[in-house]
Write the structure tokens for this entry.
Amino acid sequence: QVQLVESGGGLVQAGGSLRLSCAASGFIFSINTMGWYRQAPGNQRELVGAITVAGSTNYADTVKGRFTISRDNAKNTVYLQMNNLKPEDTAVYYCHVLRDGSNSWGQGTQVTVSS
């Protein structure tokens, strides 16, 4: 059973930083691309970025240069380092994996950026 557990969210002032973590279990973490998504109130869930098995990353234009995704296969954990946060980054952030044609999501962690 796939399980994704996010942590690290919170309240931060604009310009600050947070690091989110996603602990994965129930599948072979090291052979799957992992993604981060976010959803703000009234908005659709959107891709923040993803990291492949080889460590290649891609990011939404809105976060490029400010956010960094990394992974530690020994710990079955993927990270989202968020720097220079802006009020528009306020959202619930979700960890995601697509395996065998099925999407799995964590419960989400709230990030609130005050101006």
Observations:
- The CA atoms of residues 89 and 113 lie 7 Å apart.
